[in-house]
Design brief:
Shape: elongated
CATH superfamily: RNA polymerase sigma factor, region 2, helix turn helix motif
Strand content: under 5%
Number of helices: 5
């Protein structure tokens, strides 16, 4: 499956919407490293999306929905549901 977007088109798409996608991911994931990873994944999906966007509004809506769905899937992932919270991590002691 080939891509229909050139590197320049993807770069322009990234410049136009990276702030919005990052804010959505940060709002949902509440964690900077995870939001950065999710943002990159959303733009990777945009590179792999093999249909043209109808117009700028379709492009923006697609990115919003993709970011939201990706973040929701991350929040449902087994690793996030079983991680210890910050309070539990503060109670750990180190043995010498």
């Amino acid at each position: 499956m080939g891509t229909i977007r050139t590197g320049e088109e993807v770069a322009a798409l990234y410049r136009r919407h990276v702030g919005m996608v990052y804010q959505i991911c940060l709002m949902l994931l509440k964690n900077v490293p995870d939001a950065e990873d999710a943002t990159q994944t959303v733009f990777q999906k945009a590179m792999e999306y093999d249909k043209p966007f109808r117009d700028p509004e379709h492009e923006k809506a697609w990115l919003i929905v993709t970011a939201r769905n990706h973040c929701k899937n991350q929040l449902k992932h087994w690793w996030r549901t079983r991680r210890a919270g910050e309070k539990a991590l503060q109670t750990l002691t180190w043995e010498q």
